[in-house]
Amino acid sequence: MAKAIPGTLKVSNDCIADLAGYAAMECYGVVGMAVTDEQNGVLHLLPAQRLRKGIGVSYEGDTVVIDLHVVLEQGVNMAQVSKNLEDSVVFLVKKIAEFENVKVRVHVEGMRRR
């Protein structure tokens, strides 16, 4: 059985983004994370080693807010995949980073065939 160690845990925004990205990529229907090029307005699908570019981490009071910009598989139920994605990310961030209040906003940037 693990013993509790007194102290505080500090988790960087990049670490939170990585956790969220890995949880997102495990969800059915998620093709990948996306980022939009500001100059050209072109959507880019990010490779697995650059997932955190498609994830924003901010704070609203004592709540961690995670914005996920995703591309979903064509033909899936967007509402259900978004809900599963939200639940998976909240669960993982609460479990590993030990945050009490986590809010996830899913931004579907596009649909794509696998």
Write a structural description.
There is one protein chain. Strand 3 (55-60) and strand 4 (63-73) form a beta hairpin. The radius of gyration is 15 Å and the shape is globular. The chain is built from two helices and five strands. The protein is 29% helix and 33% strand. The model has no long low-confidence stretch (mean pLDDT 88). It has one domain (13-112): 2-Layer Sandwich (Alpha-Beta Plaits). Strands 1, 2, 3, 4 and 5 form a five-stranded mixed sheet that branches. By secondary structure, the chain is an alpha+beta fold. Helix 1 crosses helix 2 (78-97).
Keywords:
114 residues; alpha+beta; Alpha-Beta Plaits; 5-stranded mixed sheet; globular
Give the topology:
Blueprint: H1 13-25, E1 30-36, E2 43-45, E3 55-60, E4 63-73, H2 78-97, E5 102-112
Parallel strand pairs: 4-5
Antiparallel strand pairs: 1-2, 1-4, 3-4
Helix pairs in contact: 1-2
Describe the structure concisely:
The chain is 29% helix and 33% strand. The protein has 114 residues and is of the alpha+beta class.
Proportion of residues in β-strands: 25-35%
Level-1 CATH class name = Alpha Beta
Structural class: alpha+beta
Ranges where pLDDT stays below 50 over 5 or more residues in a row are none
Categorize the overall geometry.
globular
Mean pLDDT: 88
- What's the helical proportion of residues? 25-40%
Helix count equals: 2
Q: How many DSSP-defined strands? A: 5
Gyration radius from CA atoms, angstroms: 15 Å
H-E order:
HEEEEHE
Q: What's the number of domains?
A: 1
> CATH topology, what is it called?
Alpha-Beta Plaits
Largest sheet: 5 strands, mixed
